[in-house]
Amino acid sequence: SVVNVFPNLSFNDPVGIYNAGDGSHRLFVVEQPGKIKVFDNDPLATNFDIFLDITSIVDQGGGYTEEGLLGLAFHPNFSENGYFYVNYTDYGPRRNVIARYIVSSENPNEADYQSAFIIMEVNQPYSNHNGGQMGFGPDGYLYISFGDGGGGGDPLDNGQDLLTLLGSIIRIDID
Fold first, then answer.
1. Nearest-10 Cα torsion for 112, 64, 11, 168
2. d(CA 165, CA 175)
């Protein structure tokens, strides 16, 4: 059976739910159109805060379900440095963007939008198979997945090409 754990909250195309690992017991829901909502991990919660809103720079490609804000990862020392990372799609050219943001020094439930720092961008040839998950491993490295770049059956064979990051999971020493 399916149970709605947070019946008093609603989300717009959620793609992931995360904990910052900072002892606050807050949950962060990533919404594909470009928002991250934060709220207390309480089934009776009735409200949330907008932790980050990057809808103005995230592109979902006119309704394709494989683009948008796709991933979130909190730095292992988030409680000390306030760093977190997002993976989203943008256009001009079509690409995945990995960016670091910092939590607001005045409000732990809000990110500093102006703190955006682009770590890397990877061009995407198609609007599907963009991947997007990311997370820190026990080794402290940031692992980022990139889809094969799309098209039915991976027509560019990116999944077999070691000269492209498409179709890969990469590891970055973010520090």
1. -60
2. 21
Structure tokens at 82: 């306030």
CA angle (167 as vertex; 164, 170 as ends), nearest 5: 75
Q: Which residue has the tokens 């990533």?
A: 30
Compute the distance between CA of residue 45 and CA of residue 28 in angstroms, rounded to an integer.
13
**SS3 state at 26:** strand
Nearest residue to 47 (alpha-carbon basis) of 87, 8, 105:
8
Respond yes or no on whether the N-terminal peptide bond of residue 14 is cis (omega within 30° of 0). Answer: no
For residue 4, give every residue at least 6 positions away whose Cβ sits within 8 Å of its Cβ, in sequence order, or none: none
Alpha carbons 6 and 155: distance in angstroms, whole number:
41
Q: In 3-state terms, what secondary structure has residue 4? A: coil
User: Using an 8 Å Cβ cutoff, are 73 and 61 in contact?
Assistant: no
Q: Tokens for 132?
A: 């997007």
The residue type at 92: G
Q: How much is the pLDDT for 62? A: 56
Q: Which long-range contacts (CB under 8 A, 24 or more apart) does 11-14 make?
A: 11/37, 13/68
Q: For 145-170, what is each residue's pLDDT tens digit?
A: 998 888 888 888 888 998 999 999 99
